[in-house]
Every structure is written in structure tokens, then in C-alpha cells.
Amino acid sequence: MSRSGPLLLAAAILMGPVATSASPVPFVPLPYDMPNGDGVASGGTFNYWDALYNGAGNTMQDGAPLSGGWGKLTDGVAATTPWFADADLGGTGLYVGWRRGFTTDPTLTFLFPVPVCLCVRLTIDSVTIWLDNTGVGGVGAPLAILLDGLPLPFAPPAPGTVGPVAFGGLGLRGPFHDLQFVQDPALPWTMVSEIQWTGFLTYIPAPGAVLLFGPALAFLGAFRRRAG
């Protein structure tokens, strides 16, 4: 999976002079804040932490608050096998897992690279979530997925399988958006391997807008350098 999403969005700023839209491109990687996954201390066989997370917080503690970075969930790598295929005590497997009763109904907050240039508008178009719904070890799809507090109708992967759940046509604006997983008491473990958002930029021509391209590109360029 390419990590060029923010760079492609930056390139889209140069479109004009009439209003144009880029095709949706993925944000990879994308910063997010969340509670760390759970593991042995919460009754798991292994640790389902976000051990690769590069922001603040203790990535080796169940449910610890993590902020200001990115890790497994937006690295562009989605699992095609069940959670137990590569789970380990180091928390480096593909899945992040939360157990109801320990880290109940976890909420993840994502930060998007909104342009500083008023001549450019960012629209967040879709989100795809890769879930485990095998039922093995009490792992299953959540009862509900909330986007900014509102439920998203969805069909989970077939029982006994893993796979994506996609939501399109979101039309979201603004830099911060939340996803919350409402867990099933009968299947208390929620295992997620990847969350991919896509978006596009629309250029809005205005007098003097060209003079603002520099700050906008600098902003997205800095985001790109942090991703590296």
C-alpha cells in the first residue's frame, strides 16, 4: 500500500484555475489517539497492543492512552488471516484488540491534514475497517460502529471470517473525527487490523488564492516528512 496519500492531496492543490476535484486517495499513515489494546493482563492469551505506535503513551500497558502518533491501524497493512495467526506476547501482531469489561467500547480519534489555504477544501470520503469475526476466543464484530457519535449501518464479515467493512460517501469536513466500537457482550473481544480513510481536495478559486499555495504545500509537506 502506498504512503503517498498526503502528497497526492498536496499535488491536487495545484489544480485550477477552475474548481476541480481529485479522486479520493488514502491517508497512509494517519495520526490517531486511542486506548492501547488489551492482552494477558486482561485475560488474553497474547498481547494485542499497538506495539508499533510512535506517539506518546505506554504501548506495553493494556488500555493505556496513546496520542499524537500512528501505528498498526493506519500503516496500510490489513490482515487477511485470523487474529491468532500471528498474535504474540510482544504485541506486534497485525491486530489491535480490546476486551469489553477492561477497555469497553473503545473510541479512536483521527487527525486529518486539513489545508491551511482557504482556497482548498478537504472532504473525507470513506472509511474501511478490517475486522476479525471468527468467533474464536470470544472475538467478534462489534454490535455497532459509531462515527462522531452516530451509528453507521453495516454488515460485518461473515461469521468465521475476517474482512473489511466499508462506508462511503461520508462527506466529512474538519480535522478530527471519532470512531467507536460498541462491543458485543457475547463476543467481548474486538480485533481490528487496519482503518483506512480516503479523501480529496477541491480547489476553490479566489482572488489572490495562488499566493496561499505555499503555506498549504508547506503544511502537507511537513505532514509527509513526519510520515517518513
TrEMBL record:
Keywords: Membrane, Signal, Transmembrane, Transmembrane helix. It comes from the Bacteria. The chain crosses the membrane at residues 200-223. Residues 1-22 form the signal peptide. This is PEP-CTERM protein-sorting domain-containing protein.
